[in-house]
């Protein structure tokens, strides 16, 4: 190494080279004056160093610490270090076969200003590991762990695992540094590994001293006594040590242990668990069902506002909310969904209608409403909170009863959100349809495979598969099977498939069909849906089970008037003109129920389906 006659300040020591990782070098150079421009490190000859990363750090004594990271060269090189002024440099001879010492974290930190320590820590946590791919380097991870330890107080504040979300994840509680409102990024650093913690933390309300708590879901693999959590934000970082009890409480037991729990914290815990593995999602549901919040309505008597929320279904398209409001003196400015610290108005996509609450002499006219709130709410959040905002500035909290967990029941509740007489095209398109599509998607995603029961010997290659969906009402089944059995074409060329969409009736229906099979010597197939999924899903399940060239979709209350009813329908399908055909349907008095359909606008402009000559 040689120093030029004109130096940039007087160096306290010459450049020092050490190892960051197996093939990554660090050059550190302290200058006793302020260096305002970025330093440069260049080979005296040959190609430039690539990749090369530089960091300029200010010292508390007014000097500057320059750091350069680069890959170990393949052969001996002379490097020129420029520290700010043209023509003034330090030359460093680098022999790659030399035995370089590991980088000392205490030396890196010594004398740095607080802002420089933040720059150093964020660079070692994020920037340089990415540039040089050092996240899995054992040497670098060990250095980073020592750097974090050296940056922390002798007794770092604790973050504690307070509840088990699933076998691999815990709910972590910790405190933010004084004056900090939010965390930018979190890192988990142990002697054996480093990782960025995914998922946004949730924050509690400020405490008596203005400190805020934060909560996050953390994978517990690799967590030990020497593991640190590093919190980073704009111009700050903080180090926390993890306390991980051996026997973590379940989410429900932890919640019960809090005494007077904070509803905002409850929402945070549910949100964190709901975004995790299936076991964590189940824990969130269990906690809400075992520890429900007391429902709260607003009762203001004859003059003050009254309100109640009875529907609050969280979906991935938003929260579908329903309830009523009575505001005789116009004191209410709006109703909001309370999500953590945020208040989300219901008014953007809201539909109102007239309603009555109470009975007899207690009946009172109210304004019903249904709204879809675009909110990132945990699914399922069974008891979200709402606020009735008054012109006076007061806010009254509403809490609905626990909402249904079963997806089919959620769909049923959503379908009843607006009374039929008040439905409009806009209400369906903007409010109900997005929520119902999301709920139905959940239902289909969780629908198990149907169970198939074969009674008799099935035809190997039937011409027609007759598919009959069933739901609850089985009154016409005996007559219908009898009509099928009396039809020679059905016996010879058709298979009969019943699809039960109310699986709780499976045992009784199977017993009934076995008797009819023995009575008529007619093969039958029973498809039992895993859960109620609706007419369309049941019809599709029957079509999937069908073996015939043609599928005849027949309702459970339809009885053929005579044998041979299928032949003219099949004849109409022989050509290429038609892809689907249907028969006339008659009422029991012989009048016409269906002979084709058309669409026409109704009294309020909505499009309705009509039947040609119905009732004639």
List how many beta strands DSSP finds: 32
Instruction: State the assembly state of the protein chains.
Output: single chain
CATH architecture of the largest domain, please? Sandwich
Helix content: 10-25%
What is the rounded Rg? 36 Å
Question: What is the SS-derived class?
Answer: alpha+beta
* Count of all domains: 4
Main beta sheet: strand number and arrangement?
8 strands, mixed
What is the residue-mean pLDDT, rounded to a whole number?
A: 91
Instruction: Give the overall shape.
Output: elongated
Q: Fill in the CATH topology of the largest domain.
A: Immunoglobulin-like
- Which stretches are poorly predicted, pLDDT < 50 over at least 5 residues? 1-12
Beta-strand residue percentage: 25-35%
Give your account of this protein's structure.
- The chain contains 13 helices and 32 strands.
- The longest helix has 21 residues, at 425-445.
- It folds into 4 domains: 16-133, Immunoglobulin-like, CATH 2.60.40; 152-291, Immunoglobulin-like, CATH 2.60.40; 306-444, no CATH class; 458-583, Spore Coat Polysaccharide Biosynthesis Protein SpsA, Chain A (Alpha-Beta Complex), CATH 3.90.550.10.
- Helix 2 runs antiparallel to helix 3.
- Mean pLDDT is 91; it is low at 1-12.
- With 616 residues, the protein is of the alpha+beta class.
- The protein starts with 15 loop residues before the first strand and ends in a 5-residue tail after the last strand.
- The protein is elongated.
- Helices cover 24% and strands 32% of the residues.
Helices and strands in order:
Layout: E1 16-21, E2 24-31, E3 40-43, E4 52-58, E5 64-71, E6 77-82, E7 89-94, H1 105-109, H2 114-132, H3 138-151, E8 158-166, E9 169-175, E10 185-190, E11 193-196, E12 202-203, E13 213-219, E14 228-233, E15 236-243, H4 251-257, H5 263-274, H6 278-290, E16 306-315, E17 318-326, E18 332-339, E19 342-345, E20 350-357, E21 364-373, E22 385-390, E23 395-398, H7 407-415, H8 425-445, E24 451-455, E25 464-470, H9 477-485, H10 488-493, E26 494-500, H11 506-520, E27 524-528, H12 535-545, E28 550-553, H13 566-572, E29 585-586, E30 592-594, E31 597-601, E32 607-611
Helix pairs in contact: 2-3, 4-6, 5-6, 7-8
């Amino acid at each position: 190494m040689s120093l030029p006659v004109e130096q940039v300040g007087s160096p306290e020591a010459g450049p020092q080279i050490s190892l960051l990782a197996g093939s990554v070098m660090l050059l550190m150079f302290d200058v006793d004056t302020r260096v305002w421009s970025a330093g440069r490190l260049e080979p005296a000859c040959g190609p430039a160093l690539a990749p090369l990363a530089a960091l300029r750090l200010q010292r508390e004594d007014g000097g500057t610490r320059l750091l350069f990271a680069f890959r170990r060269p393949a052969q001996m090189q002379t490097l020129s270090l420029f520290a700010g002024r043209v023509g003034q440099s330090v030359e460093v001879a680098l022999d790659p076969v030399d035995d370089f010492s590991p980088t000392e974290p205490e030396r890196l930190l010594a004398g740095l200003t607080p802002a420089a320590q933040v720059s150093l820590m964020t660079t070692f946590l994020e920037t340089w590991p990415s540039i040089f791919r050092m996240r899995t380097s054992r040497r670098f991870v060990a250095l980073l762990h020592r750097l974090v330890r050296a940056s922390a107080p002798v007794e770092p504040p604790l973050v504690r695992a307070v509840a088990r979300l699933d076998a691999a994840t815990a709910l972590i509680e910790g405190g933010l540094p004084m004056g900090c409102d939010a965390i930018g990024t979190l890192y988990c650093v142990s002697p054996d590994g480093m990782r960025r913690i995914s998922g946004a933390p949730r924050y509690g309300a400020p405490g008596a001293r203005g400190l805020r708590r934060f909560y996050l879901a953390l994978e517990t693999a690799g967590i030990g006594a020497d593991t640190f959590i590093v919190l980073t934000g704009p111009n700050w970082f903080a180090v926390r040590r993890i306390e991980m009890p051996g026997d973590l409480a379940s989410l429900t037991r932890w919640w019960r242990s809090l005494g007077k729990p904070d509803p905002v914290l409850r929402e945070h815990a549910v949100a964190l668990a709901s975004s995790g593995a299936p076991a964590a999602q189940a824990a969130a549901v269990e906690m809400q069902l075992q520890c429900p919040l007391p429902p709260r309505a607003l009762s203001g008597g004859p003059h003050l506002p009254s309100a109640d929320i009875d529907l609050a279904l969280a979906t991935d398209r938003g929260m579908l909310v329903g309830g009523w409001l009575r505001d005789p003196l116009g004191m209410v400015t709006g109703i909001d969904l309370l999500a953590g610290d945020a208040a989300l108005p219901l008014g953007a996509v809201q539909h109102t209608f007239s309603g009555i609450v109470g009975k007899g002499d207690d009946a009172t006219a109210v304004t019903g409403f249904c709204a879809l709130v675009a909110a990132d709410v945990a699914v399922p959040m069974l008891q979200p909170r709402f606020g009735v905002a008054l012109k006076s500035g007061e806010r009254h909290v509403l809490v609905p009863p626990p909402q249904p967990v079963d997806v089919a029941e959620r769909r049923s509740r959503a379908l009843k959100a607006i009374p039929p007489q008040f439905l409009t095209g806009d209400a369906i398109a903007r409010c109900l349809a997005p929520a119902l599509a999301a709920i139905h998607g959940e239902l289909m995603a969780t629908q198990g495979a149907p169970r198939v029961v074969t009674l008799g010997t099935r035809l190997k290659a039937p011409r027609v598969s007759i598919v009959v969906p069933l739901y609850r009402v089985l009154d016409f089944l005996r007559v219908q099977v009898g009509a099928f059995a009396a039809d020679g074409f059905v016996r010879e060329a058709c298979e009969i498939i019943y699809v039960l969409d109310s699986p709780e009736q499976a045992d009784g229906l199977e017993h009934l069909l076995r008797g009819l099979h023995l009575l008529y010597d007619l093969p039958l197939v029973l498809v039992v849906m895993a859960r109620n999924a609706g007419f369309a899903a049941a019809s599709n399940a029957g079509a999937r089970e069908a073996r015939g060239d043609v599928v005849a979709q027949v309702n459970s209350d339809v009885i053929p008037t005579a044998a041979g009813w299928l032949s003219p329908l099949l004849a109409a399908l022989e050509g290429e003109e038609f892809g689907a055909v249907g028969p006339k349907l008659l009422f029991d008095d012989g009048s016409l129920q269906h002979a084709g359909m058309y669409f026409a606008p109704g009294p309020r402009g909505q499009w309705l389906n009509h039947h040609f000559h119905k009732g004639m």
